[in-house]
Design brief:
This protein has 297 residues and is an alpha/beta fold. The protein has helices at residues 38-54, 61-69, 80-91, 104-112, 136-143, 150-169, 172-184, 199-202, 205-213, 224-228, 249-255, 259-265; strands spanning 94-98, 115-119, 187-190, 193-196, 218-221, 240-244, 282-284. Bound molecules: 7,8-dihydrobiopterin (HBI) and fe (iii) ion.
């Protein structure tokens, strides 16, 4: 188990919104597991069954192993205390309940201390495929299995520490692109094939197929400076996915100082979501048909 990070001082003068009524100063709340209704557990089951049918052969082995090892089952929304017993033992991580999106600084402080903030609510049955804020299905089914993986576990903590530094340096937009294109929408090569590890993909039935099987999006070998410049869509499938050679590449990303890389891209323009550069190592050049005719992101 990795020791907790030193606490970074709060940014002077950077006002962070107050937590909503009933939440603690760090924005956490009780999960309130006993308050979930039968309907809410049924929504979980529908989503769980849909994803577990799709993921063998599509999600990376680390995700499937993590899901197996954790008390995440079809019948009920998981109890965070039960998850945390295993997570703490394996990688020193825990899940903490939050009411929804939390301010960036609060989010990073939690990650820097190996606490993953998870929404305690679940989407309604009428909104199975669309939600504005990350709910317990996205946060727990999508993120918790990978927190059992030592490389991703260290990377997530480093991202929290790097996020606090990025706030200070005024480069949060760039660092957030790295999170998006790894933790949320990352692909990885495994046994000569492409596999999913990103939580935004593994928690979405339609994007699970699109990310791997559609000819539309680019699939580009991961390159840090490329990704620091790569804008993304938050409202639809991605136009490009970035592919790691191995999850162990996250360990190197966890250890390096991003500052020289921020400097290297400081005067270069940000790249549109569907862009392809001559320097890109394209594993698949997307035909772009899915997003054609849409308003550019
Ligand atoms: N809050 N609960 C929650 N979950 C997130 O994924 C999250 C957040 N606040 C900020 C945030 N993500 C991102 O904008 C940062 O990674 C930049
Ligand atoms: Fe997420």
């Amino acid at each position: 188990m990795t020791p907790a990070a030193p606490v970074l001082p709060v940014l002077p003068g950077a006002a962070t919104a107050d937590p909503p009524a009933g939440a603690r100063p760090d924005w956490t709340i009780d999960q309130g597991w006993s308050r979930y209704t039968a309907e809410e557990h049924a929504v979980w089951r529908t989503l769980y069954e849909r994803q577990t049918r799709l993921l063998p052969g599509r999600a990376c082995t680390a995700f499937l192993d993590g899901l197996q090892a954790l008390p995440i089952a079809p019948e009920r929304i998981p109890d965070f205390d039960a998850l945390n017993q295993l997570l703490l033992r394996h990688t020193g991580w825990q899940i903490v309940a939050v009411p929804g999106l939390v301010p960036d600084e609060v989010f990073f402080q939690h990650l820097a201390h190996r606490r993953f903030p998870a929404g305690n609510f679940i989407r309604r049955a009428e909104q199975l495929d669309y939600l504005e804020e990350p709910d317990v299905f996205h946060d727990v089914f999508g993120h918790a299995p990978m927190l059992m993986n030592p490389a991703l576990a260290d990377y997530m903590q480093a991202y929290g520490e790097g996020g606090l530094r990025a706030l200070r340096l005024g480069v949060l937009d760039k660092l957030a692109r790295v999170y998006w294109h790894t933790v949320e929408f990352g692909l990885v090569r495994e046994a000569g094939e492409l596999r999913i590890y990103g939580a935004g993909i593994v928690s979405s039935a339609t994007e699970t197929r699109f990310a791997l099987e559609s000819p539309s999006p680019h699939r580009i070998r991961f390159d840090l400076q490329r990704v620091l410049r790569s804008r993304y869509r938050i409202d639809d499938f991605q136009q490009a996915y970035f592919v790691l050679d191995s999850l162990d590449d996250l360990l190197a990303l966890a250890r390096i100082d991003f500052a020289p890389h921020y400097d290297a891209v400081a005067t270069l323009p940000a790249l549109a979501p569907g862009a392809a550069l001559p320097s890109d190592e394209l594993l698949h050049r997307g035909d772009g048909h899915y997003h054609q005719g849409q308003r550019p992101a």
